[in-house]
Each structure stands twice: as C-alpha cells, then as structure tokens.
Write a structure and sequence with these properties.
single chain, alpha/beta, eight-stranded mixed beta sheet, 8 helices, 22% helix
C-alpha cells in the first residue's frame, strides 16, 4: 500500500513540477500612461514607467497594489522610457511608496518644453535614493533570468538585427515617413524581452519614423509573441511596417478612455497578420463599437473606473495566459 501511495505522489509531482517558474506581467491602469510591472522567473522585478504625478498618489498606489499581488516588496529596476508626464511623472511618488534598486533611462531630457523639463528635474532629485544606469541601443538590462535587449534609446536604434531577425520587410516599399518628431517620444527607450521561446516588445512612445529605422529595409526585431501597442495606440506610431512585420500573436493597448486608441492605429493592430487577440486597458470613447474589442477583453469599461489591470503569465516554451482583473476572464495561447 505504501508503495502504491508513493508511486501516486511521484506521478502527481511529475505532472505538476514544484519547480515550475513563470514570467509574470501586470499592465497597470494609469489612465492612458504606462506602468508595466514585470516579475522574472528569478523573482527579480522591473517596472516600465511610473504613470502620472498627482491624482492623490493614484498611480503610485495602483503600482504598489500590483506589486503586492505579485509578492514584490522592492522593485529591482525601474525603466523610464522617456520624460513625458504620463511615463515619468509618478516616479517621486513611487519611490516614497516602495524601495527601488536602480533607475534606468536613455540619458538627459532633450525636449525644451515646460512639462518634460519639470518632470525631468523632479526625477533627477530622486536619483540619489537609488542606483542609476543610462543605456543605449544595443545594451542589455540585467534582469536575472531573462534577456532584455535595448533596441531604441535617445533617438538611436540598433544597427544590426537581433538574433533570428534580419528578414527583408516587404511592407517597406509602401512606407511613407511622417514629419520629423523632435519630442521625447522619438527618444523612447524600447526593448525586446526574451525568455525561452517567449518574446515581448515594448517601444514606449516611439514614433513612426524611428519605427521605420528599426524595420526597413529589414526587420531588425523578428517575430513577437506579445506586443505592447506603442504610444497608447496613437496613430503617430504603430506603422504597418512595424506591426505587420513582427507578427504579434497578442497585443495589449495601454490606452485611456479618451487617450490613445486612434481608430486608424487600432485598425492596423487589430488587422495584423496572425494576431489572435487585442486587449485594452480602457474602452476608447472615440472608437465606438467599431474600434473597440469585445467587452471581455477590456479591463475598464467606463471613464470613471477602479483601475483594473491586465495580467499575463508566460511559460518558457512560449505559451502564455492573459487575465482581465475586472471580470476574471482569461484566455490561454499555446506555444508556436
């Protein structure tokens, strides 16, 4: 009897290995800004951007609550993609809320307008409370257990394709550059995170012409499993040359009720070859029913909301599950 019981326990442990690790992501609702919490299989954490300043510490509190759910007591790395208020504004409030190991950015602010100058000055004042790292295109971010390659920073993009990329991009023949963007958006720090067969792309608010530098004449990024829709879904970004070439399986849009999710950009992402699903942090008022996904895929249906988030759990084989915290709706995507 003991032998049979022991055999049964062994079979159960083999079917559900106790050592299984996942890569977890929380796409926090900061009302049209960005705050993406990533917890590596090693247990180390990385936060991409900090949302807005003000609002009675709303965004810092939402980030803290996501970290609590992820059992994160200290954020090891905070990546600031660029110095616009919806991305860096909440940094002082965040570091008052919980400890940060290292801030990572693209270097000094280069936009000579009031808000970026104010927010960059506030950001500089808190750098003495943590380590600080400046990265350039081609560098890596040292989050243990995963590979994070910086593909854009401070207006530059990688010179050579990532491993497995470099294919000719047929869509480049119809590419049309837009007016030159001199704002911090074009200097966004963007990266590709790889864990086993799973690949995630976050380009911050990188704009159209810089996308073309990454994707034409060859695709320097390769195929992507999860695409965080650039620039909250504005049509100054998300060119077909980018979106179609990376063949995302799933896209998540960090839009607000009245920010981002431009109908033209929404349609480009929604129609991307091979896309299984688009998820949104908010119902986009501008888009109406024609340019919003079905309700189960939207974390916040109303403008006055409770800040519901979208969570992802990825596995090393490339499979992953996305969960809507509003309604517990979830969908799993098998490995390629």
């Amino acid at each position: 009897m003991r032998t049979l019981r022991a055999l049964g326990i062994a079979v159960a442990l083999a079917a559900f290995p106790l050592s299984a690790k996942t890569l977890d992501m929380f796409f926090v609702d900061v009302e049209g800004g960005q705050a993406t919490l990533i917890v590596a299989p090693s247990g180390q954490s990385l936060l991409v951007d900090t949302g807005w300043r003000g609002f009675n510490n709303r965004d810092a509190d939402r980030i803290y609550q996501a970290a609590k759910k992820a059992h994160v007591k200290k954020i090891d790395y905070v990546v600031i993609t660029h110095y616009h208020r919806d991305h860096v504004g909440g940094a002082p409030q965040l570091i008052d809320r919980m400890p940060v190991g290292t801030f990572i950015d693209h270097g000094p602010n280069m936009e000579n307008t009031r808000e970026p100058k104010e927010d960059y000055a506030d950001y500089q004042r808190i750098l003495s409370r943590a380590q600080h790292m400046v990265v350039k295109a081609g560098d890596t971010i040292p989050l243990k257990g995963v590979d994070i390659r910086v593909v854009s920073a401070n207006g530059d993009v990688i010179a050579s394709p990532l491993e497995g990329a470099g294919q000719q991009n047929a869509a480049c023949s119809s590419a049309h550059p837009k007016e030159t963007d001199t704002s911090e958006n074009a200097r966004s720090l963007g990266f590709v995170l790889t864990w086993g067969n799973f690949r995630f792309l976050d380009l911050g608010d990188l704009t159209w012409n810089k996308e073309l530098q990454l994707m034409c004449p060859v695709n320097k990024l390769g195929n992507i499993d999860l695409f965080l829709v650039s620039h909250h879904g504005f049509d100054q970004s998300n060119s077909p040359q980018l979106v179609d070439a990376i063949h995302p399986r799933v896209a998540i849009m960090n839009n607000g009720a009245r920010k981002g999710a431009s109908p033209d950009a929404w349609q480009i992402v929604h129609s991307a070859p091979g896309l299984r699903d688009l998820w949104q942090l908010h119902y986009a008022v501008e888009g109406g029913k024609e340019h919003n996904v079905p309700d189960p895929f939207i974390a916040n249906l109303y403008e006055q909301c409770q800040g519901k988030y979208i969570r992802l759990e990825a596995h090393e084989d490339g499979s992953f599950t996305v969960v809507n915290s509003r309604n517990s709706f979830e969908k799993s995507y098998p490995a390629r």
